[in-house]
Amino acid sequence: MDLMKLPHPLFWTAAILVADLILWRLISETRSHWKIAIRSALFLMFSAGLLGAGLTPLNTVPDQFDGAEHTLATTLAIAWWLFGARAITGLMILLLESRIERKGHLLQDLIGAGVFLVALVAAAAYILDLPVKGLLATSGAVAIILALAVQSTLADVFSGIVLNATKPFRVDDVINIDGVEGKVVEIDWRSTYLLTSAGSMVVIPNAMAAKTRIVNLSRPDHFHSVTVTVELPVRLRPASVLDSLTKALKGCRELMSEPEGSAVVTKSGLRSVEYEITGYVHSRDRRGIARNQLHDLIYRQLAASESVRQSSAHPVATTRQLAALDSVSALRTLSSEDRLELEQHMRLSSYPAGAVILELAVVPDALLIVESGVVTVTMERSDGPYELGRMGPGELMGEGGVISESPTAVRFTALTDCVIYRVDRTDITATFDEHSELRRALVELVRTRTKAREPLLQHRPLEDTPTGLLHWFRGRVNKPRDAGKIRRS
């Protein structure tokens, strides 16, 4: 029979099928929701077209179709099952989108394969009227033979299913599998792909990944550990060392206050004792910065510890006051005669944790040098107190009062027990005329700190603009009243 005389519903259903293929190609992958919605709508229209043409996909093609009509009707009826399988697969993936990731193709492929297998068997049974039981029995025997032949591959596939279901790691996580560390870039049917820090790609079979120990370095995602190991001579008293390490942890501003870091002895030998310091940061990207700060703070706190100095194997040629002066980077330009003169006026004082060393808006009457401990520096902003930074051994306070008798713009508080040297302002100003390098060093320190503080003082908190239906309703109610008042005036 001439194809031009075919019933119109068959033409329309075929046109809908072609339109689906074209639109699926044209719509961008970023609009997956639109693609699935349009495909579902076209599938309903396709079903309505088949029913209008007198075709039922649950039965064989009626005898009223013959020749070319019968071939086209059979093709469209089989296409209905495949079309439905594609639509159902898309909807299932959309519903499980939060569970299976866009880059993890394994579960998506398994869902699609299972739905299409059911659709093919149903089309063979309902449309072609084939003996499905014999077909399934034959395919089962073939499947057993193939399974024995590809046993290792199937182990990887099923291990991949387990990994995707239990999700010990996801795409973009940084993991360590059997000593291999890298970023997960893809999980397919057989393997997991890791991108290492060296830029190389490591392919790990899923069966191996499922059997070995997996360390996920990206979870929990709200904090990440930073570990530093220090080996010190056995002559140093562990209690004093641990106290210095704890102060170094508190002095590192990169570390989170919760969970709190810790310092422990991990190994003790005849010549050395090994200590492990652990803290936590918000982001993995900050671990290197925090580790570098910890090493510097550990060195400074240990150098400032009295017990460490007393147990030193080499005799110290300088006094305790000169050692504190030598640790101040701002005073390194001073000559040895100037430091010796300052040493005569240094007075030792101690502050317990929580004590205010310098209050806000007061004129310091002395230059303060931190010998040991951690000092937190806070400033008042419009949104409340803000921690500007933390100070450790070898840092100065009160330089503004010594130079120009200006009040402090921040508050200095002892975060831990602190030992601080004081040099009265009168004793320092008496030497300014003779030693101008001291004045220059303090003036430069004041200028640097003021420049760093100015942008933070100008901070303005973000005002929350009220939104929502209630705010809109209030605005609509108040507008007529305001307008009436204006008109009456």
Task: Describe this entry's structure for a reader.
The termini are far apart. The chain folds into 4 domains: 147 residues, no CATH class; 49 residues, SH3 type barrels (Roll), CATH 2.30.30; 87 residues, Alpha-Beta Plaits; 138 residues, Jelly Rolls (Sandwich), CATH 2.60.120.10. Helix 2 packs antiparallel against helix 3, helix 3 runs antiparallel to helix 4 and helix 8 crosses helix 9. The longest helix has 28 residues. The strands form 4 sheets. It has a 5-stranded antiparallel sheet. Strands 9-16-11-14 form a 4-stranded antiparallel sheet. The protein is α+β, with helices and mostly antiparallel strands. The protein is built from 16 helices and 16 strands.
Domain unit count: 4
How much of the sequence is in beta strands?
Answer: 15-25%
Shape: elongated
- On the 0 to 100 scale, the average pLDDT is 78
Report on the biggest sheet.
Answer: 5 strands, antiparallel
